[in-house]
Amino acid sequence: MNTRQQNILQVVNQRKSVSVSELAQISGVSVVTIRQDLNALERGSYLKRVHGYAVAMESDDVDARMQTNFQLKKSLAEYAASLVAEGESVFIEGGSANALLARYLAQSRRVTIITVSCYIAHLLKDTDCDVIIPGGFYQKSSESVVGPLTRSAIQLVHFRKAFIGIDGYHEDTGFTGRDMMRSDVVSAVLDKGVETIALTDSSKFGLIQPYALTSQHQISRVVTDDALSAAYRASLAGLGIRCDIVTEEGRSPAG
Fold first, then answer.
1. What is the pLDDT of residues 41-77, one digit of tens each?
2. Pfam families annotated for this entry (predicted)?
3. What is the pTM of this model?
């Protein structure tokens, strides 16, 4: 993926739908070149093409994403909650599964939740748990705070465990994200060297997104579903990453 294609993907992911002609104008190239770029991005499952428009594969709207595979995400969230002790302070990044995790934790035990997601903070407004939101630039599409101020604030708060979302994993690239600013937030969390747990369904494996989640520290554990292939389980194990497998019914048949 070249730099122009990365910029195209960033614009489409931010705006959800952009016309071919507007992308040509933004990129300073011909419509023919943009169509070639979009064909390549569509073949890689980065976006969809619909009647002269490029459309994001997945919306950042958490309410919409919550309705997809809801029961599975609920089971993943409930299992992830079992990893958190009473009275613990935890960081929860964002996304639909993590939103369910935050709500379940707030309703089941006394915890402090640090989150960059204003959606999650609002979800917890009627609960008894303490909520800390770092400062930063408010990204309207994801309802999260991002940017240098957020990165600095993350370094100033203390937590021993963090739950993050991912948008892709491939052996060639490791863990990746669709959004540059949100990926930077995850990298800031990884930089703290705490136990970091990726909470995700198995559909993200095999995907390569534009932005690497980079740090000298590795993700500690992945909580995902039983559709994850044996090859990816072995790949994670080879990196020293624990993989907890959860079924839609909520059982954890393997670890």
1. 888 777 888 778 888 766 555 554 554 567 888 899 9
2. DeoRC (PF00455), HTH_DeoR (PF08220)
3. 0.75
In a domain, 8, yes or no: yes
Q: Are the C-beta atoms of residues 85 and 100 closer than 8 Å to each other? A: no
In this structure, the answer to whether residues 121 and 168 fall within a common structural domain is yes
The Cα 92–Cα 194 span in angstroms is 13
Structural domain harbouring 136:
66-246
The tokens for 109 are 């035990």
On the question of pLDDT at 117 being above 70, the answer is yes
E-assigned strands of the chain?
Answer: 17-19, 47-50, 53-56, 89-92, 112-115, 130-132, 137-139, 144-146, 161-164, 168-170, 174-177, 195-199, 211-212, 221-225, 242-246
- Using alpha carbons, select from 200, 223, 157, 210 the residue that is nearest to residue 9: 210
Q: What is the per-residue pLDDT across 139-194, written as a single tens digit (0 to 9) for each?
A: 988 889 999 999 999 999 999 999 999 999 999 999 999 899 999 999 999 999 99
- CATH number for the domain spanning 10: value is 1.10.10.10
Interatomic CA distance for residues 182 and 179, integer angstroms: 6
Same domain, 183 and 89: yes
Q: Average pLDDT in the 3-17 region?
A: 84
Q: Is 254 left (phi over 0), alpha (psi -120 to 50) or beta?
A: beta
Q: Which CATH number belongs to the domain containing residue 207 in this structure? A: 3.40.50.1360
252 located within any domain: no
Are the C-beta atoms of 73 and 103 separated by less than 8 Å?
no
The Cα–Cα gap between 164 and 26 comes to 32
Last residue of a domain, one of 13, 28, 57: 57
The answer to the question of residue 94 being in a domain is yes
